[in-house]
Amino acid sequence: MNIQFKKGVLEMCVLLMLEHGDRYGYDIANELTRSISISDGTVYPILRRLKQENYVSSYLVESPGGAPRKYYAITPEGKKLAASLAAEWQTFTQQVNLLIYRGGSSR
Q1: Counting beta carbons within 10 angstroms of the beta carbon of residue 102, is it exposed (0 to 12), middle (13 to 18) or buried (19 or more)?
Q2: Measured on CA atoms in the order 57, 33, 7, 100, is the torsion positive or negative?
Q3: Which residues are within 8 A (CB) of 101 and not within 5 positions of it... i.e. 6 or more apart?
Q4: Which of 8, 36, 65, 71 is the most exposed place for a label (fewest CB within 10 A)?
Q5: pLDDT-derived band of residue 64, with 50, 70 and 90 as boundaries?
Q6: Per residue in 11-61, pLDDT tens?
Q7: E-only strand ranges, 1-107
Q8: Are strands 23-24 and 66-74 parallel, antiparallel or unpaired?
Q9: Is residue 37 within 8 Å of residue 44, measured between CB atoms?
């Protein structure tokens, strides 16, 4: 998949995943790599930026047999952003699909 396509949707994907429950970074990266070819390290800068912008919060949870895990939770502001991005994505993909499958005409 084109890297520019990925960059445009990863933030939305992370937020939408967090709407279903709190997760730690590796878990998010692992889930994403099942659908989108990315490296594990791709997710952490996104999570840091989302946290700085108050779209997610984080907290530590003790891990049995290792270092504590940092979990991320979506904030109310993050939920608003996720909804907005998902709506924009729907509109965008519909318009692109029209161009791909109909050549842009209104047939």
Answers
A1: exposed
A2: negative
A3: none
A4: 65
A5: confident
A6: 999 999 999 999 999 999 999 999 888 886 889 999 999 999 999 999 999
A7: 23-24, 56-63, 66-74
A8: antiparallel
A9: no
The residue ranking higher by pLDDT, 103 or 93, is: 93
Task: For residue 88, give both structure tokens.
Answer: 């924009």
Q: Which residue carries 């608003």 as its tokens?
A: 80
Q: What pLDDT, on a 0 to 100 scale, did the predictor assign at position 84? A: 95
CA distance 53 to 68: 24
First and final C-alpha spacing in the chain? 29
Q: CA 36, CA 87: separation in Å to the nearest integer?
A: 20
Lookup: tokens for 4? 């520019």
The residues near 51 (Cβ < 8 Å, ≥ 6 apart) are 57, 58, 72
Token pair, residue 94, equals: 């519909």
Helices (H) and strands (E) in the chain, counts: 4, 3
